[in-house]
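Readers of this paper often ask what the protein records in our data store actually look like. The remainder of this section carries one protein's record, kept here as part of the documentation.

:::
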Amino acid sequence: MDTHVRLLFIDAEQVEYLLIGSLLSEIFHTAYEITWLPELDKAVPEILSDNYDVILMNYQWGASSAKDIIQAARHQGAKAPIVVMTDEIEADVDREALSVGAADYLIKGKIDAQLLERTLRYAIERKGNESRLAELAHYDPLTGVSNRTLFKDRLNHAVDLARRGDYTFTLMYLDLDGFKPVNDCYGHDVGDQLIQQAAHRLLECVRNSDTVARVGGDEFILLLDDMRASTDMAHLAQKVIESLATPFDIGGMEITVGCSLGIAPYRTGADTEDVQRQADMAMYRAKQASGNQYCFYAEIMDQDARRQITIEKELRRGLGRNEIAIYYQPRLDTVTGEICALEALVRWRHPARGLLAPSEFLDVAESSGLVVEMGYQMLAQVCRDSHALADAGLADTQLCLNLSHRQLRDDKLVDALIAQLDAAGIRGSRLEFELSESSLMKDVDTVRDAMGLLSVTGASFALDDFGSAMSPLSAIQQLPFARLKIDAQLVAGVAQDRQKHALVMAVVQLAHSLKLSVVAEGVETSDQLRRLRELGCDEVQGYWLCPPKPLDEILVHLQAAQAQLNA
């Protein structure tokens, strides 16, 4: 034991303070530095301050008890052991004190210098041993901050306190933006050093009473004690983002990452699962907004989550019951009026809600991965429908399907395509796959690899929604696209908006210089069609020409649509 011990004495009675001071003065081999605190409501910050080696406190304060103080100190990571003093007549109080986290107890009126010194010394020694074990059980070995186990323990305690009285807290979930590329490029040693430095910066951003926990590879949680004002939360969130955005110096290399952060203030009635889920949803929303941002939890996120869960469950069942339907929309040549292609568009015949458009379910299909199975079902149906088109004199009409980013990454895609082509007895050149500009921006390498494999079958490709993002020209030149499809938002203003007119003209000129055909989507008026013809657009599609329809209706409508175009 150290020869100099800092002791915090918590008791309202000065006479008790003087008595303890007198007893400790009899101990010659150890110098005790005593600080007297007569106010219980100021105890927790002092206990957590790291200014003391041991705490000695009166357990009973009239009608109130030190029980909550001991529990709060333990759950917030107090390092100093707490010894309590109880009255002899208070049966079982000593056991209660020990059960909530006290290191030992002394009975008033039976304390002498030798007993007091031995009790304090043993408490400090036991706390040291416990701390070493706790480091292994409750702290992340890489960063030294709390691990998931200790975080859950402290969160449970915070929820209990919030439910019982005038106490609140806030959770912040965050993960590092761009950490995986750093790990992949520089190796795990550099990644580990980055995580260590990030944890250190987080500790510098918060108070001693707050908890920083590492709960995953690059995921951290901040448990912020008694933070009430949303402005304070926003200020701290911005402080964390700016801190982590500052370049890290690792082995002489300057590495920059960011973070996405979700904020969930405690809400009355919430349990530990609720508040964690809310913080996680807020973080996900922040990451969707391009990262390096923070987002507060809002009730609408719960509504969205429940909607997604319900739709995913029903869609999974619907895929098994053949509820997915295909509607076709023709693409027409602006000069001849001939049908160039039919685009296959997905619909869902929901048993309770009727026919649903893609906007009602496609985002859930993509996020859940069900879009892959849906895509296979659509591919099989399109190959079967090719025979009906042949019977109607459209044997050479191209059939177009959209491919999502998840489908492009599926290893079974090419084999499934070959199998369906063989089963239907049609050539791969009958099919054109449309890839969105956003998919291209996500991962050019994945898109390139998938297009290379699919092109072996003879299928062609179109870049969909061109103008909705900022796809690099170099990527378009490197990939085997046959045509560009101009985004409907640009087409919508081509007849009135000079800027959009100029943009469409530039896209047409760019595509033609690259030997690509141009398709205008979303044609809604005759004025738009006239302008698109003038600008040299090769093909058009839209509701004014022909809305998406089931195959049997589209065959009837095609002749009328061609006549309208030629009028």
Notes: The chain has a mean pLDDT of 87. Residues 148-297 form a domain with the Alpha-Beta Plaits fold (CATH 3.30.70.270). The chain has three domains: 3-137, 148-297, 321-566. The radius of gyration is 34 Å.
